[in-house]
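Reopening: structure tokens for the 5'-O-[(L-methionyl)-sulphamoyl]adenosine complex, inputs below.
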Amino acid sequence: MGKFYVTTAIDYVNGVPHIGHAYEKILTDVIYRHYTQRCENTFFLTGTDEHGIKIQKTSAEKGISPKEFCDMNAQSFKDAWKKLDIGYSKFIRTTDEEHEKVVQKIFQKLLDKGDIYKHAYTGLYCSGCEAFLSEKDLTEDGLCPDHQKKPEVVSEENYFFKLTKYKDAIIKHIQTHPDFIMPSWRATEVLNQLEHIEDISVSRSKSNVSWNIPVLNDDEQGIYVWIDALSNYITAIGYDPDGSSDLFKALWPVDVHVIGKDILKFHSIYWIGILMALDLPLPKHIFAHGWITIDQTKMSKSLGNVISPTSILESFNLEIPDPLRYYMATSAPCGKDGNYSDDDFKEKVNAHLANSMGNLLNRTLSMLVKYFDGDIKPGFLGKNELTEQAVNTIKAVKHHFDYFEIAEAGQKIIELVDITNKYVTDNAPWTLAKEGNMERCGVVLTNVLEVMCVITSLIYPYCPNIARSMSDQLSYNLDTKLDNLTCSNLKSGHLIDKENIKPVFLRMDSELADKAQKIK
Ligand code: MSP
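Re-run output (same inputs, fresh job):
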């Protein structure tokens, strides 16, 4: 595969990052890192969505300018992603000057084409969604179902985008591309929404919303926040109606937009209509993930259960984000809702990362030192049932990633860890050594270490720091591309030095982990 371009939704900066935002960025980072192991040219875009009525109101309540407020909160998103090792290639802010300029040009292009027109309108606006809702979207009490707030009645003369002109083409595209919306079962919901679509309002009167990008040559109107926000996927890589950058030409169309299920309509209907109007190729996939609950309860400010991802790292004294990344990325089957709970977090990462995976590497390396002084003899190397299992796991993991089944791929990796642990127990290298069957003992240990190299590569997207520590101890090249990954990673000769063997991850509640933290 040549290139891979992946994006996340850009987060509203009217608050600080929570575990739901983090879930999406972790999933995307895992996808991105996996594809860096398969492609030469990869790009990962994330950022913040900074315009709109919500920011305008919240910053006014705080008595600071919207820009100051955005600067402060955008930084807290960047800081959080740094702590979680989210390795994005670019962080776009919709208040970036370059983005604002190109959004104005995009708007103008659609006006010139006749796909945007002016129209007087009265509608129900939910500032939580930053969207007009129709009566049938509301609950029986007339509330927005997502934000449990009564939308405001807004009467304005706005610009409208002729979405209905593209309705049939969008339906056809979804029907003829079964892997366009992922998981594919979500397509039915989008096709139902398409039945009822109307043209959409794409501007707000400046007298009602001042914190937005002005429409060129019209002082009365500002560009609707969703048009501004969705355009980030192309402006960030250099799209320009007057001539796009080489980066844009190399990367577009995007391989996958990773978004939450709540904003699928904006991506699979509105955005697709706009791209069609701009005569641009369409995204290859839109992957809608589920939502994260806390202890099985929806997160909300009023319930006071909004959790920050960095506070989890702090409260467990974690120096690397890998356990949280692994836990979140494997918390829900593809597209379904997941849950965070402290106890479950601790239990799962202790079991998978410390007990199963970490211990396996540690005791195998220790045995290689004890019985062979860290040396691998040529006769130890070869293929067998276990290494075949590893090769099958590589294929299965790649297949899951093709469908953005991140938790499912993670499960396959842990299954391979379990199979390898069983192989060690069944073959009991310590007994073989005691019996003096050193040839067989060496073969068993080498088979396990070969498979550990495969596990190191496969776990890397979830746990980059742990994988690095594993590859160091195995003298294994973590840059190996998955297509070249076989079970012949080890060379005969000296593999390790005794000083280098250490647990790659300590149980979160172990005395050793506590001690290590106290020393530092
Ligand atoms: N700004 C818009 C997106 C514009 S994309 C061109 C937005 N922002 S948001 O801050 O409300 O949400 C950002 C992303 O976080 C969305 O994909 C949303 O689904 C996701 N999540 C917000 N809360 C979440 C959970 N509790 N769980 C999982 N994801 C959640 O929408």
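Residues 9-12, 20-21, 23-24, 49, 229-230, 259-260, 262-263, 291-292, 299 surround 5'-O-[(L-methionyl)-sulphamoyl]adenosine (CB under 6 Å). The longest helix spans residues 342-372. Marking as resolved unless the reporter disagrees.
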